[in-house]
Every structure is written in structure tokens, then in C-alpha cells.
Amino acid sequence: MQILDPKALFHWADYLVLALTLGISLLVGLYYGCFGTKQKTDLEYLLANRQMKTIPVAISLIAGFISGITLLGTPADIYSYGTQYFAIVIGIFFMAFAISYLYIPVFVNLGVRSSFEYLNVRFNDNAVRTLSAVIFLLDAILTIPLYVYVPCLALEQVTGYPRNWIALIVMIVTVTYTTLGGLKAVIWTDAIQMVIFCLPLIIIAVLGTIAVGGWHVVWEEAAKGGRLEFFNMNPSPFERTSFFAAIIGGFFHWTGYNAVNQTCVQRYLSVPTLRAARTTAYIFMVGVIGIITFCTYIGLVMFAYFRDCDPLAAHLVATSDQIVPLFVMKVEEGLHGLPGLFMAGVLSAALSSISVALNSSAGVVLDDLYRPFIKNDISELKGAIFAKVACVILGVLCTGLTMAMSGLQYMIQVAMTLMGIAAGTQFGITSLGMFNPYANWKGALTGGIASLVVMGWISVGNEIMSIEGRLNYPALPVNVSGCVPPLAPVVMPTMDPTVLPIYKLSFLYVALCGWIIVMVVGSVVSLMTGSTDVDALDSNTLTPPVAKWHRKRQASRKAASLSSERLDRISISTLSVTGNYKQA
After folding, report:
1. How much is the CA Rg of the chain, to the nearest whole Å?
2. 18-39 residue pLDDT tens
3. Cα–Cα distance, 270 to 44 (Å, whole number)
4. Cβ pair 113, 368 in contact under 8 A
5. Could you tell me if 150 and 69 are in contact, meaning their C-beta atoms sit under 8 angstroms apart?
């Protein structure tokens, strides 16, 4: 559905801004691929020889996890459901410290190249490593098209060009600079793209505030419309968004992705020291909180702007995710280039997420799904070539899936479902290895499979109920009194009371539930099948607090053993002396 005549929306200046965004990213990739060090080893291609600077890596982390979905979806969510989701920033704050002190030290001290290699070191078995790597790869293959599809849908809306052609151009550019430039190109283009998608957020927030009459009007209208909710203390896990879901569920959701997901671990390992890796996590936390804050405020500004006529009820947009582009075109009308700048920001956020996922996935194919199964390891140069070929193949596959997405009504739901399942399972398996020294590979494998099955059942059931219209989370009331022509009052959908409660589980708790299943099932199965020999375990494979206990335990046992040996020697000496005395 077109919200306005495309010719009235995009000026040539807007197209120029979009072209520059794609062109700059492509040039960075060409530079590192053709004029830089040319990525002669896979270590350089995938980890930049572990010599990257802290600031660009931190910016890359922010850019990689702030996608077009965030820029379009978060304001729309605040517009529809209020500010309770904003409490997730508290969970994100604690996430940074959990990552810095519980997870990053393990990867850095072991010197591994991926979170999946850690699993092989810890459990001494390729089965767990392969399972986690396959989950990650499938998750990436299905979510990359989602990252592409969302901004292309918005661009189709404001340009009139078919989304498939836009998607093809976007993927060609992204795959080219990611393949040629490797991690260095990805990180530096992320830094540039970060500026491109942050600038429009500030401009939109300022122009929107001016358009509605000031920030006090924004606050007043949000209060009158019931959008200011920060302390919904309903403890039910079936509440869509509550204070507890945002903080506890949000903590596990974000930590699950950012502590053990290879796209993040790869960046932590690209800096030279543990201190630098921790610093990147703190900067990442501050940046993400800042962007979510801006997106939340823009959601409130949109509500104040459309306070008299909800665009969804007025059929100006087909879905709530299209409210943001409509709002941008309204407040920036006549300001040529600014609408293009905003769309460039959305596109940049997508490019950064796509390139991060492609680069990490290529590394996983090489290090975790190919090298462990060949007898003779390939050279570093051949490894770099292999990773580049894998990047191209994955890019082509994801491009095809993006094309198919426009024809498959429910593919987006499938992709989003897999994201939650994958995060909880991977987080649980890695945490089991780090926090439970008695866990063995059988427990980790069984726990991982159990998490996949149970959370898959819940998530797929949730999506089926939603598709059938039986599972609805009614949005907050909207006003249509100012619409022209007049509209009837909006009737909000209701929840089908026959839906099983388990299918109503908040999306914020999916990762937490997956984590709990792996930890419980994995621990029980490990006890039943013979726990790991704790004395033979490397302390570096355990999270620092548990590693400290493990070292004390080993030192105590060693001291006891030495003491026992001394007593044995003394006893032998005493017996010898006694025997000699008797003989005398």
C-alpha cells in the first residue's frame, strides 16, 4: 500500500544520499580487498590479526545489533504499547558487566577463534560444537533476509521501485564489500554507517518535537494517551511486556545474543587484550542504550503527532511498522534530502547487520563445520579464500530467500521465531560449560536438543495462534476523532480464552526459558551419565568465579596429596628405624 504518491516523496537529493551510502560502503571494501593487506590469512580476514582498535570495534558491535528492524520497529512498538519496553535498558546495563566478567575472559584466555571452538575445548567432543554451529548458521541464513526485507519494504513504499530490485542491489553491495574487505572492512563500514543512522534519529526527534509544539506537549499527550508506563509490576510471564519481563527477560535476551553469539565474540577477539575487549562491551552498552532511548522518544513524538488520527485506523499505512516512514515524510516534507537521509540511516543499519552476520557465518563454516572434519588442515591463505567463497555462497542463498520472502506471508514470523530459539539454546550450552564444571558433552548435547524441541514447540505454537488471529496483544487505545473523513471508533481485537497459556509466553522470556532448559536438563543428564573429571578440567574453560573455586580445589587437593606423601615417607622412615633398632 502506498502512503503517498512516490514522486511527491523522494527528490533527486534523496536518491543521491542513498547512492552515497551504498557507494561509501563499497569503496571501503574495495580498499581493504584491493589496496590493503589483501587478507592473506584467514586470521586476518576473520579476526584482523587480533589488532583492531577498541573504538571502531565497539561501534561495529553497536551498528551490527541495531538493525533497520530496531529503527522502524521500536518507535512503532512504543507508539502502540507504551514505554514499558524501555525498561529493557536496565537489563542491557547489567548485560555489559555479565559479558565483561563472566564470558569474555574465558574466550580471551583460551585464545579460541569462535564460541563454538570453546565448546570443543570444554567438552572435548565435536558433537556439541557442530550442533551449536549449525543452529547459528541456520539462524543467520533466515535472519539476514529479514534484515534486508524490512528496509527494502520501507524503500519500496517511498520510491515506488519493486522491493526485490532494491534487495538485489543491497545484497550485491553488501556481499561485495564483506567478501573483499573481511572483518576490517566490516568494522570500518559499520563505523561510517553508525554515523549515518544516528544522525537521522537526532534530526527526526528534533523536527518532530518542533512540529507538535515542544517536548512538554510530547509528554502531556503521551500521558493522556496512556503511553507512559514504566512500572507494570504484573509478574506473569504471559504478560506481553512488564517491568520484570523487560529487565529479567531483556537481560537474558541481550546477554544470550551478545555474550556467546559468534557475531559478537568475533569482535571481542579482534582486539589485542582482555581490557580492550571489556571496554568495547561497555561502549557497546552505552551506545545501544542511547539509541533505544532515542527510538523510544521518537515513538512518543509520533503518538503526539498523530494524536487525533491514528494512521493505521485511517488506512494510511498497512502495518504499524510503516508508521515511522509516514511520520518522517510528514515532518520532513519539503526538506529535500532529509527523507533520503533517514532512509539511508535505516539502510545503513541493515547493511551493518547483514555484513556482520555474513562475515561471522563464513568464519563458522570454515572453522567449525569444515576444519574439524578434514584430516590435513588447509593453509592460512587457502583458509582465507575458502571463507570468501563461503561468504559469496551465503550471500547468494540469502538473496534468494529475500526474494522468496515477499511471496511467503509467514516467513518473517518463522525467522523471528528461530532467533529466540537459537539465542536461548546457544547461551544455555555455553553457560552450562562455563558454570557447571561437572557437566559433560552428553548433558550439553541433550540439554541443547531439549531446548530446541521445547522452545520450538512453544514459539511455533505462538506464531500459529497469532496467524489464526486467536492470539492478540491489544494495542493501547488510539484516537480517530480528527480523521477526514470521520471514522468509527477503533475496536481492539481480544485474546481467545481457549489458547493454551504456554503459547502466551512473552517474547522477552524465550531466551531465558531456553537457557533454563539447557542448564537443568544438561546438569541432570551429566550426573546420570558420569560427570566430567573435575580434577582433569582446565580452569580456563570455566567462568572466573567458578575457575577461582576450581583452582582453590586443585591447590587444596595437591596440598593434601603432598601432606599424605610426607606422612607416608615419615611412616616408612619410622618403620625402617624401628626395624634397625630391633635388629640391633
Report:
1. 27
2. 888 888 888 887 777 676 655 6
3. 9
4. no
5. yes
Instruction: Record the cell numbers describing residue 358, joined without a space.
Output: 555474513
Q: Which of 385, 376, 296, 322 is nearest to 45 (CA)?
A: 385
Q: Rounded to an integer, what distance in angstroms lies between the CA atom of residue 241 and that of residue 1?
A: 30
* pLDDT-derived band at 409, boundaries 50, 70, 90: very low
Tens digits of per-residue pLDDT, 104-146? 999 999 989 889 999 999 998 889 999 999 999 988 888 888 8
Q: How far apart are CA 268 and CA 114, in angstroms?
A: 10
Cα 264 to chain centroid, rounded:
8
Q: What is the DSSP letter of 501?
A: G
Dist. CA 23–CA 44, nearest whole Å = 24
Hey, what CATH topology would domain 8-435 get? Sodium/glucose cotransporter (1.20.1730)
| Span between the terminal Cα atoms of the chain, in Å | 111
Residues composing the chain: 584
Q: Which residue has the cell 526485490?
A: 164
Q: How many CB atoms lie within 10 A of CB 425?
A: 30
C-alpha angle 308/310/312, rounded to 5°? Answer: 165
Cell numbers linked to 432 = 552450562
Task: Compute, in degrees rounded to 10, the torsion defined by CA atoms 378, 379, 380, 385.
Answer: -70
Cell numbers standing for residue 35: 589496496
- Biggest CA-to-CA distance, the chain: 122
User: Is residue 293 packed enough to be buried (19+ CB in 10 Å), middle (13-18) or exposed (0-12)?
Assistant: middle
For the record, the C-alpha cell of 305 comes out as 503527532
Amino acid letter, residue 488: A
Please check whether residue 405 is in contact with residue 142, taking contact to mean a CB–CB distance below 8 angstroms.
Answer: no
Q: What is the pTM of this model?
A: 0.86
Instruction: Answer yes or no: are the C-beta atoms of 480 and 490 closer than 8 Å.
Output: yes
Cell 504499524, located at residue: 320
Q: How many helices (H) and strands (E) does the chain have?
A: 21, 0
